[in-house]
Design goal:
Length: 820
Amino acid sequence: MTRNSPRHKTNLKSTAVRSLLLSSAAATACAALASPALAQDSEGMDEPAIITVIARKQTETLQEVPVTVTAIGGDTLEKFQVNEIADVVSRVPALNVQVGGSGSGGQISLRGVGSSNISASFDSAVAFDFDGVQVSTMRMVQAGFFDVQQIDVLKGPQSLFFGKSASAGVFAIRSANPTQDWEVAGKASYEFEEKGYTLGGHISGPITDTLGIRVAAQYQDIEDYVKLAPGTPAFNPDGSVRDSRGISNFISRVTLQWDPVDNFNANLKLNYIKNKSDGAIGHTDVSCGANGVADPIYLLSGALVIPSNADCNSHDGLYHTSDGAAALVSNIPTGSGGDNTKFENGTPFGETEIFFGRLKWDLGLSDYLTLSSVSGYLSLDAVDTDCYSYVGELAPGVPGGAGCSDPVNQTEQFTQELRITSDFDGMFNFMIGAFYESRDIDFNTSQQGVNISFLGADPITGFTYDWYKKQNTKTEALSFFASATLDLTDQLELSGGVRWTDESKVSRITVPYVHSFLSAGPAFIPSGFFSGPINFSDSNFSPEASIKYQATPDINIYASFKTGFKSGGIDNSALPSSSLLGFNDPDPAVRQGVADALKFDSETGLGGEIGVKTQLANRTITLNTSVFYYVFDDLQVQNFDAAAVQYQTFNASQLTSQGVDVEWAWRTPVQGLNFSGSLAYTDAEFTAPFVTTSGEDINGRAAARAPKFAANAAFDWSIPMGDSLELGLNGNLQYSSSYFTNEDSLNDLKQDSYVSIDGSVSVGDPDGKWKLSLVGVNLTDKIWINTSAGRPFLEPGVGDDLLLTQNRGRQVFVEAAFKF
C-alpha cells in the first residue's frame, strides 16, 4: 500500500538544504554562473540598455543570441502588478496560461502547443525554469512570484539546453540577487475590485566582502478572488453565507551569494511558498449551450435530478459553484485529503505548500574551462476539495453540488546538472554536460463519480464518497548533452549539439475503498485493490543546429534547426472500474494489455526558424523578426468525456505550428518616452487524422488556444517634475483574434477576438526612494475563455451545458513603495 511519507512535508528542513550542499559537493561542482543584469546603466541618454538572457546556458545579449526570446524586466513586472504567471500573457502574444484544475494545477502553452491543466501525469510542453532548475510540476503556476529580476520566454523546442520538458519552449524566471550595497525596500498595495492587499519587501546587501544576502517576502490576501453569483448555495465554515471565494499567498526567499576567490562563486536560493484558497475551482463559469437553459444535474439514471442555479450569463464575472450536498460529503474516507476539520459543511478549500531550493556553483578549472553545477530540490504538498458539478441547489439556499473530490498532490523532486564550458581564444568552443532527475509523485483522491451516497452511505464504513484511489509514480531521468560553437569568421558562427535522454517511470495504483453499493455490481472493483508495478520507459536523441551571421554590430541574421522531446508516461485518471481487474489475471498478456491501456507515448517536435534582429537609428529602434515552422508528433492530449464523467488521455497524431513573431521597441527623442510591442501570427493545426472522444476526425482544424493574430503595444513615459519629483505614465494594449477553446470536435466553442488595456500613473522620487502608483489591469473588464469542456452529470441527449475557464476581471490598485 502506498503511504504518505513525512518527506513530502514542506517545512524548511535541514535535510533538504543538506541534500543540496552534499549533492553538489559530491559532483565536485563549485559555483554558479553569475546572474546577468537586466540592463546596464547608461552613461548617457543615447546609450541603449543592454538586455542579457541565458538561452543557451550562458549569458548572452538578447540581440546576439540566435534564439527567439521575449525578455521582460523586473521594472515592467512591478509597474503593472504582474505577480502571477497568467499576468505575463499580456506581454507575450503567443503565450497562453491557465491557472487552476484539480490535476496539474495549471498549463502553459506557446504557439498553440501545451499540456493539459487537468493531468498531473503530464510534464509541461513548455518547461518551467526557476532560477536554472527545470520544475516538472505545473502546480508552480499557482504559486505566484515576486522580487524578480527578469522573465525570459524562449519560443520553439529547446531540448538541447533545457531537456525533456521543453518540447514547445521555456518559461524562465530569474529572481533578484544580493546587491553590492545595503538596500531596504518595501511596498503595500490595495486592490479595489477584488478587495485584496499585498505587503512585501526585501533587505539586501553584503555581510562580508565576499558574502552577500538578500531576504525577501510577500504576503497577499484577496477577499473576492472569485465572485459568486447572488443566491449561490455556498457557505463559510462558520455557517454564514459566502458571496465570494478568497485566496492568499505567502512567498519568501533567502539568497546567499559567495565570491571568495576569482575563480569560484556560489549562489544558494531557498524558497518557501504557501497558497490557500476557498477551493480548486477558480474562474470557471457555465455556458448554457444551444438549448438555452441551465441543465439540471442528472444522477442515478434520472432517479435524482438537482436543479441548476446557473443564470446562462457566462461573461458577467459571476460564478455559480455550489458547495457539496451534505449526503455526499458528510463522511470522508479516512486518510484522504478532505479527511480533516477544514472540510466542514462541504465548504471547499485548498492549500499548497512548496519548499524549493537551488544551489549553483561555478569553478574555473583553468583560464579556459569552467565546471558548473546546478542542484535543485522541490517538495510540494497540495490538497484541494471541491465539487465538480459546478452548480446544484436541492432547495433554495440548500447546496446540491455533486461530483466532489479531494485530490492530494505530493511531489518530491531532485535534479542535478553538471556542465563543462570552454572559453578559448580561438574559433572553437564547447559545452558538455549531464543531467539527472528523480521524482516521486503521490496523486491520491476520494471522488464522487456516481454520487451513490444519495441512496445511502456505505453500510460497512459509513463513508459517503464513491471511492478512494491512490497512485504513486516514480520517475528517473538521465541525459547527456554536448554542444559546440565554431566561429568561422568574425561575423559567421556555426553551432549545434545533441542531447540524449533516457527516462523510466513506474506507477502503482491502490484503491483502499470502494462504496459497497458500487463494488457489489459488475462495473467496479472491490475495496483493497492493488495493481502492482506499471512500467514505462523511453529514450531519445534531440539534435539542434544554428547558424548566425552578424552582418553589422546591429544586424544579426540567424537560422536554426531544432528538435524537442517530452516523455510519455502512465495516466493517473483511470477510474476504479472492473477493467483494472485485469491486473490480477494470471495471463501475463492480459496484465500487459491493461497496463498498456493506461500509457501514453512520448511527444516529439521537429522544425526550425529564421530570424533577423536589428537595431536602427543609433540603436533607438529595435526590430526583431522570426519565421518558424514545427511539426509535433504524438501530441499528448487529455479531454473530458462529460457523458462518461471520465478524462480520456491519448496522443494526437500530428500538429503543425508555423508563423511569424515580431517584436519592436522605440526610444523616442522625447526624454523618458519609450514605445514597445509585439505581434504573433500563428497557424497551428492538426495535419494528420485525429479522432477524438467525440468520434470526429479534427484533421485540418486549428489547435486550441492558438489565435491567428495576437499583439500588444505598450508605452512608458517618465516625466521629470523638478529635481526631486518624477511623473510616470504607462500603458499596455493586448489584442487576440478568435480561437478554439477545446480539441474535441470540429464545432468546439470559439472565443471571439478581444482587446484588454492596462495602465498606470505614478509619482515619486527620480532615484526610486519612494513612489505612489495607481495601476489598472484589464481596465475594459473583458472576460475571455481559455478552455471549454462538457459539464458532467447531464441528461444524455438533452443536456448541453459547457464549462468555461476564464481570466480574472478588472483590477485597480493603489500602491506605495519605498527603497533606500
